[in-house]
Amino acid sequence: MQPDLDQPIATAKxxxxxxxxxxxxxxxxxxxxxxxPLRDELISKVAGGTAEAxxxxxxSLIAQLLGDKSTGLAIQAEVLAFHQLFRxxxxxxxxxxxxxxxxxxxxMGGNTPIEFLLEDxxxxxxxxxxxxxxxxxxxxxxxxxxxxxxxxEECRDAxxxxxxxxxxxPRPLLNPPRLVGHLDRDKLHHLLCGIAGLDxxxxxxxxxxxLSAASNARIANVATELQFPFIVRPRGSHAGVGxxxxxxxxxxxxxxxxxxxxxxxxxxxxDYANDDxxxxxxxxxxxxxxxxxxxxxxxxxxxxxYLNANMAFSAGKRLxxxxxxxxxEAGFAARHRNALSAMAERVGLDYFTIDCAExxxxxxxxxxxxxxxxxxxxxxxxxxxxxxxxxxKIFDAFAAMLYRRARQGREQAx
Length: 414
What we know:
This protein is α/β, with parallel strands linked by helices. The protein has helices at residues 22-30, 36-48, 53-65, 69-80, 114-118, 156-166, 177-180, 185-192, 208-212, 249-258, 315-326, 332-335, 337-347, 387-413, and strands spanning 11-12, 17-18, 85-87, 97-104, 123-130, 139-140, 144-147, 173-174, 198-199, 203-207, 230-234, 244-246, 263-268, 279-287, 290-299, 351-358, 364-370. Helix content is 35%, strand content 21%. The strands form 4 sheets. A 6-stranded mixed beta sheet has the order 2-3-5-4-7-8.
């Protein structure tokens, strides 16, 4: 049934499937738990025809966590073909708030891992996967909704379908789909360029043939501001997959010989090392326009993310990260207050993250903005005693935003 887009969409209590969920399964994998026995148990249920939809979705995630992405996605597609609404674990029997997360059918990194943000709250989380040409009408009962699909090409159909119904959504709708689409790497520069105190290299899409043509004489034909060294990655890749620095034509030839992709992102390389030769990369979380420290990674390599920085093996690095978190508001956030505020306003999302650094001029250097980065509290409290309180601050801010927006929606409807 096609809804009347001039009237709020109706809601109803719809059947959902319970699941172990993203947060619990990912934490098990993070802590070194062998997921294969659980995988085998779920496979037996599927083979015997006794598996519930939630168990099928859990099996899909386990397969991906074990490194079998293609099998995981195939299982997910089969499950979502007959069931799209799932409930995550909740710590209370009678939740104080009902949140509806709108997801796309994509790999485990393609939707906001919202379970981590709500794991210990009194908030019920229902996730609706947008897989058909339209959303179900009536919609599941909820107090507030949030789009958790990413701005990637694989999520474009889901974002388009949600956007078609956004104007008549019956409850507050956070992270509007039209704004999520602005976070893609080649769009973000245009969105943020010109902000005083902020440096964001332009990202351009190039074909394999264009990249192959890159040479000292013709590199300007690839992108106007480009020169060696520059950064390249396959379009649509995540978590540093295929990310490399091209120092000259020979490096481009070697890179293409090892890659099969046909489209790539290229951007100028920025040397953001400190005087000691170490690189510092930060992840910030924005909740309702306000930035929070999430983590800081330190390494002697430019292509840094938290895991390859080996923070767990350096007490000195952890001490520096603890200081960054403790002094964030008076330090980092104060230094970049105007740039952070302007960026939050231009992005316009209720919740998103950025990965950033400081360039040699002291400006905020932005690498990417995302609504699907993992924000968690899985790190060992013995090794990282400063993290639980900081992550709780983020989680509490996120929950408070949901309560506030739901209350405002009820007041407007009254």
